[in-house]
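Troubleshooting log. The previous structure file for this entry was overwritten by mistake, so regenerating from the original sequence record. Sequence copied from the archived sheet and checked twice against the printout by T.R.
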Amino acid sequence: MGMKNNIGSTDRIGRAVGGAVLAAIGVATLVGALEFGTVVGVLAVVVGAVLLGTALTRICLLYRILGVDTSESG
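Regenerated output below.
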């Protein structure tokens, strides 16, 4: 059956854009184009990937734990 969506359209767009930007900064850092350090680069890629994943699936486990629902059906 799956989980009920808990991310709305505006939230989804923000997560997709923010995730893509963070992931791009992380990758640029890891390949040496930016000098933020390896730890920051890895963290940016991981957080960016999580944001992109939640935007694609429209499900946020942290929102579920906290009882937050930004979807139109909530």
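The mean pLDDT is 95. Archived copy saved in two places this time.
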